[in-house]
Design a protein that fits this description.
Layout lengths: L2 H15 L6 H13 L6 H12 L8 H16 L17 H22 L7 H14 L9 H25 L7 H8 L1
Length: 188
């Protein structure tokens, strides 16, 4: 079982046990979308947006998991050496149909988070093309048959989604990493 698949399963169980039928994929997509649009990494802002997805107050037992998810996303987005993201999706041992549905949910969440936070920021042609691709991916539906061609297409979309947000984050988030001096003064 891969790390992202076990995280997906753990999140799905946690969400189900709290009575919230929210997809872990959609939840992570929402978080990444808002961060890529420049919403930052403020816990309260993220929890407020998650609350909209839950359509109720975020239960106290979910708060630490949501904040942990945000820390993971922050680490991946701000790492100088990051070339792709870890997506919270079902593993390869799950059916292609389930994985395809999750990719659609992830993309819908991303677009929702990005759209709610981008404001009037002017986007480059490349960023607009990525968003158009994401709109198309959000409409994905599973094929009737699970075959090698479907698996290849799934893997190509998955790889695209692991890198496209990094471009949008770089262009839109205006994130400035704290300098070593800033970090040291915060410690003292």
């Amino acid at each position: 079982m891969s790390q992202s698949q076990s995280a997906y399963t753990a999140f799905a169980q946690l969400l189900a046990s709290s009575g919230h039928p929210v997809s872990p994929a959609e939840l992570q997509g929402l978080l990444l979308g808002r961060c890529c649009a420049g919403a930052g990494f403020n816990d309260e802002g993220w929890l407020e947006e998650a609350q909209d997805l839950f359509e109720s107050e975020v239960p106290s037992n979910l708060r630490p998991a949501l904040i942990g998810l945000q820390e993971m996303v922050k680490t991946e987005l701000t790492a100088q050496s990051s070339v792709s993201l870890t997506l919270l999706l079902p593993g390869d041992e799950d059916s292609l149909a389930l994985r395809t549905i999750a990719i659609g949910q992830w993309t819908q969440g991303f677009l929702s988070g990005f759209g709610a936070n981008i404001g009037s920021t002017e986007l480059s042609k490349e960023a607009r093309e990525i968003l158009e691709d994401l709109v198309s991916i959000a409409q994905i539906s599973p094929d009737e048959e699970e075959d090698e061609e479907g698996e290849v297409a799934y893997m190509e979309v998955n790889e695209y989604l692991r890198v496209a947000p990094l471009f949008l984050f770089t262009e839109c988030a205006n994130y400035v990493a704290p300098s070593t001096e800033d970090e040291q003064s915060a410690v003292h």
